[in-house]
Design goal:
Helices cover 56% and strands 7% of the residues. The chain has two domains: 63 residues, Zf-an1 domain (Irregular); 189 residues, no CATH class. The chain has ten helices and six strands, in the order ββββαααααβαβαααα. The radius of gyration is 39 Å and the shape is rod-shaped. Strands 1-2 form a two-stranded antiparallel sheet. A two-stranded antiparallel ribbon has the order 3-4. It has a two-stranded antiparallel sheet with strand order 5-6.
Length: 277
C-alpha cells in the first residue's frame, strides 16, 4: 500500500511549498513563514493595515458626499416652538400684585384713609412713590424668575388668595404684610438650587434698600420718598426671610442656615437703622 505525502501549498510570493502555510487576513492568499506578513509579500491590501481607513478613491467619494449634505440641509415643514420668558397670565398677576404693593407703600403716609388725601394733595409725588414701590416689588419677583431661568427651570409669578387678602388688609392696619403672591417654579432641582432661587428675592431687596438709603442723602432726591422706598424694600426682605410656610426664608433655611442667619441679621439691622436714624 503506497502512501502519498501531502506536500501542502505553495507560497503565493516565492513559490516555495509549505506544509502549514499562513493565510493573509487581508488579501486571502497563502504564504510561507518568511512572507506571511503583509509588508513582506507586498500585500495589495496593505493600506488597511497602515491606515485602517477607506482607500483614497473611496475616501474622496465619501468627502464629496459629506460636502453635498452640508450644502443641502434638510428643511422641515414645521417650526420649533420657543419658550417665552413670560406670559399674559403672569403679566396680569404681576399688575394686580404691584397695585396691592403700591397701595401698601402709599399707606405708609398715614393711617386709615389719610394716604388717600396725600394722593389728592400731591399727585406727582404720589405717582413717583407708587412707581418706586412697584420697582421694589417687581425686582424681587424678577430676581426669583431670572435665577430659576438660569438653572433651566420654568418660573412664573402667581397671585395667592390668602397673600392678596392679607396685603390688602394691611393697607388699613399698622402691620404691613407684603406677600400678594409667589413665584411658581417647575422642574428638577435639588435643595441648593431651590435655596439660591429663594435667596435671590430678599438679596435684591437688601441691595435696593441700601442703595435707596444712600440716595436719600442726595440733594436732588426727595429724601422722604426715597427713605420710604428703602424702608419698604428692607421690610419686604425681612418679611420674606421668615423661615416658615411659603416664605423664601423656609427654603433658604433648608438650604443653608448660615446664609439665612446672615441675611436675616443684615435685614434686621438695616430696618432698625432706617427707622431710628
Amino acid at each position: 500500500m503506497s502512501i502519498e505525502v501531502d506536500r501542502g501549498l505553495k507560497c503565493h510570493y516565492c513559490g516555495r511549498e509549505v506544509i502549514l502555510p499562513f493565510k493573509c487576513p487581508f488579501c486571502g492568499q497563502y504564504f510561507c513563514e518568511d512572507h506571511r506578513l503583509p509588508e513582506n509579500h507586498n500585500c495589495p491590501e496593505l493600506w488597511r493595515v497602515r491606515t485602517r481607513s477607506p482607500p483614497p478613491v473611496e475616501r474622496e467619494h465619501v468627502s464629496v458626499a459629506r460636502r453635498v449634505v452640508k450644502e443641502s440641509p434638510i428643511i422641515y415643514s414645521f417650526k420649533t416652538r420657543r419658550e417665552r420668558w413670560t406670559s399674559i397670565t403672569e403679566i396680569y398677576h404681576l399688575i394686580i400684585g404691584a397695585a396691592a404693593v403700591m397701595a401698601v407703600g402709599l399707606s405708609l403716609r398715614g393711617q386709615g384713609f389719610n394716604w388717600m388725601k396725600f394722593i389728592i394733595r400731591s399727585p406727582i409725588v404720589a405717582f413717583s412713590s407708587a412707581l418706586l414701590f412697584t420697582i421694589i416689588f417687581i425686582s424681587h419677583e424678577l430676581a426669583h424668575k431670572a435665577s430659576a431661568k438660569h438653572f433651566g427651570l420654568w418660573a412664573e409669578f402667581r397671585l395667592n388668595i390668602i397673600g392678596v387678602s392679607l396685603t390688602i388688609l394691611s393697607i388699613f392696619s399698622p402691620l404691613k404684610i407684603v406677600a400678594p403672591g409667589t413665584m411658581v417654579v417647575a422642574g428638577v432641582a435639588d435643595k441648593k438650587v431651590i435655596g439660591k432661587i429663594a435667596f435671590a428675592g430678599p438679596l435684591t431687596n437688601i441691595v435696593l434698600a441700601f442703595l435707596f438709603y444712600l440716595a436719600s442723602f442726595h440733594p436732588l432726591c426727595s429724601s422722604r420718598e426715597i427713605a420710604l422706598g428703602a424702608l419698604l424694600s428692607i421690610w419686604i426682605a425681612l418679611l420674606n426671610l421668615i423661615p416658615i410656610g411659603m416664605f423664601d426664608g423656609a427654603k433658604i433655611f433648608w438650604w443653608n442656615k448660615m446664609v439665612w442667619a446672615a441675611s436675616f441679621c443684615i435685614s434686621l439691622i438695616l430696618l432698625v437703622l432706617f427707622l431710628f436714624l
